[in-house]
Design a protein that fits this description.
single chain, alpha+beta, seven-stranded antiparallel beta sheet, 16 helices, binds flavin-adenine dinucleotide
């Protein structure tokens, strides 16, 4: 039963509305009064500019740019259609009805529509009671202190790209959106850049162009914060390291309301924990200082390869090509970083052998097309035809071209159901299991060809992200960050299109015990080790000790994050 409804029933029956594990709620004296809410709104400075989209770069002569939404979304589209003439400093939940924000978005009450959109739910779940949009660290502190004073749980969100709704586990609490923290300062030697936590990668690449770039994901609208602290794979993973490897320092407002600077010298335990311990359980991060990089003198090359077949009748050829491909990938050195998508669809047509598929592969190569010719020839030998080889001289230009403006839809398809674990089921895979990845893909194709039209989810796509740090030339320091050893050693991050617990548990058994926390199944069975083990592996207990030190009363909440369910 939704908790808001259960509270209403409890109140009707004369019970206390407070449930175990929750904080304050509107039926209790700790709930803020209208004048206290109004005082918080004043502290959030309603006169601060919360309008518009980022279009101009302050360092290159433009004015500062509040931007509530990720730039380069299609038609400047905000997440979930949120209309942004001007954000408010504070949104409040006006009714106490039982519906979920997005589970039943068509019946949203007008007075709750704004807070529902501002809280960006992927999978439903109740809206928070308050959503704050601070523009300064002091305003973040005022919001944290307000939440503490009124016994509200806190969660944090930037762009709202989180597939897994980790920010949603905070009923009657406060959500702090950091989307308007947009500072950008390049160091004197250009080797590092200090960034407000609300920035997206396209904003940062734009700022650093043409000479420098930061390691990022594949997508223009993703925020620097969630990507970096969760791990972060992308076009420069093997050469420049994962997101966590590139964080030099961060600033954070912790549960006691203090603003801390964390680096290898100061608050080094928290510095370690956040870089891999992920998401909003530690506090509100207000800035990140990231390492910057430059392309090789002769530039780099973006390659795309494609095969599009209309049937699966020559299974032997597919099987041999798959084996050859999975033997080729580990031979690519750290200059290569890429992804390959195997898309498969069941056909009710025996002449076409039950299935059709396509394979798309995209790699960034830190070198020229000529230097890559052997690899291009090897790809062609297994029918992966080169469809693009574009020289990259300025990473930002190519980044924007490569991604195309993204359409930012809610992701209800990621909801768990009877036939799907939901989310983004994934496995981190070391070099020695390369052939097993090929086998898992062959298994999926065979099962789909045989049973696809009768078994839900069995034909899901496979995606190989060969974009992590397992083939780095010089290994990145394993102990300085808190990602699992599986992540540190992974050559691939493999995502599959989901399926039931049974289907996914069989995949995990073949491929491995850990996922990438930003792209992981929404539900994880005990048979698969449970979420603590699958997401945080051997690091969980050490991370929990640090969580207890900095947030002893568990003010910060986050689903499937350190401290959840403790
Ligand atoms: C279109 C798309 C493409 C993607 N491509 C890639 C890719 O190429 N490589 C890759 O590795 N991943 C990729 N991802 C996954 C991505 O890394 C995660 O969704 C990541 O969490 C997004 O970070 P964000 O800051 O944009 O999202 P948000 O939803 O804003 O935040 C993500 C998490 O971080 C926490 N958080 C956000 N801001 C703060 C803060 N200031 N302080 C404390 N906690 C905070 C939130 O609680 C949340 O749980 C992609 C996701 C999408 C939607």
């Amino acid at each position: 039963m939704p908790r808001r409804l259960s509270l209403a029933l409890f109140a009707l029956l004369g019970f206390s509305a407070r449930l175990a594990g929750s904080a304050c709620d509107p039926s209790l004296p700790c709930w803020p009064t209208e004048s206290e809410i109004s005082a918080l709104t004043t502290a959030l400075d309603p006169s601060a500019d919360r309008s518009g989209l980022l279009r101009t770069n302050p360092v290159k002569g433009g004015s500062p740019y509040p931007a509530g939404i990720p730039i380069y979304s299609q038609n400047d589209q905000a997440l979930y259609g949120y209309e942004l003439d001007a954000l408010k400093p504070l949104y409040t939940y006006n009714t106490t009805l039982e519906y979920d924000c997005f589970a039943q978005s068509t019946v949203l009450h007008p007075e709750d529509r704004d807070i529902c959109f501002a809280s960006t739910r992927n999978n439903g779940g109740q809206a928070p009671a308050f959503v704050a949009f601070p523009t300064t660290t002091e305003q973040v502190q005022a919001s944290v202190n307000f939440a503490k004073k009124h016994d509200l749980c806190l969660s944090v969100l930037g762009t709202g790209h989180d597939f897994l709704d980790r920010h949603s586990n905070c009923e009657f609490g406060m959500l702090i959106r950091t989307s308007l923290l947009k500072e950008m300062t390049l160091s004197g030697d250009s080797n590092t850049v200090k960034l407000g936590s609300g920035l997206t990668f396209s904003e940062v690449q734009d700022f650093l162009a043409p000479s420098r770039y930061v390691a990022s994901g594949w997508s223009v609208t993703v925020g620097i914060l969630g990507w970096s602290i969760g791990g972060g794979h992308g076009p420069f993973g093997p050469s420049a390291g994962l997101g966590v490897d590139n964080i030099q320092e961060f600033e954070i407002v912790t549960a006691d309301g203090n603003a801390l600077t964390c680096n290898s010298e100061s608050n080094s335990d928290l510095f370690w924990a956040v870089r891999g311990g992920g998401a909003s359980t530690w506090g509100v991060i207000t800035s990140l200082t990231l390492q910057t990089h430059s392309l090789p003198e002769n530039g780099a090359t973006l390659f795309q390869f494609y095969v599009d077949m209309d049937n699966y009748c020559d299974t032997d050829m597919f099987s041999k090509n798959m084996d050859t491909y999975m033997a080729l990938l580990p031979t690519l050195d750290e200059r290569w970083s890429g992804l390959t998508f195997f898309t498969v669809e069941a056909l009710d047509d025996s002449a076409k052998c039950g299935l059709q598929y396509s394979i798309f592969s995209q790699y960034v190569f830190l070198g020229t097309e000529e230097e890559a010719q052997d690899v291009v020839d090897s790809m062609a030998a297994i029918r992966l035809q080169k469809i693009l080889a574009r020289k990259i001289t300025t990473w930002n230009d190519d980044y924007v071209k490569m991604a195309d403006p993204e359409y930012l839809l809610p992701t209800p398809w990621m909801r768990p159901s009877d036939t799907s674990v939901g989310g983004v089921p994934s496995v981190l895979i070391p070099r020695e299991k390369s052939a097993d990845v090929g086998q898992a893909i062959k298994n999926r194709f065979n099962e789909c060809a045989a049973n696809g039209l009768t078994q839900d989810g069995i034909c899901g796509r496979y995606e190989i992200y060969h974009a992590v740090s397992g083939n780095a030339k010089e290994p990145f320091d394993a102990d300085s960050v808190s990602i699992t050893s599986s992540f540190r050693n992974a050559l691939y991050h493999v995502v599959t299109g989901g399926g039931s617990h049974d289907t996914m548990d069989a995949v995990y058994e073949l491929l491995g015990d850990n996922c990438y926390q930003n792209e992981c199944a929404y539900e994880i069975s005990e048979a698969a080790g449970g979420w603590k083990k699958r997401v945080y592996g051997e690091q969980y207990d050490d991370l929990l000790a640090i969580k207890k030190k900095y947030d002893p009363e568990t003010v910060f909440w986050c689903r499937h994050c350190i401290g959840d369910e403790e």
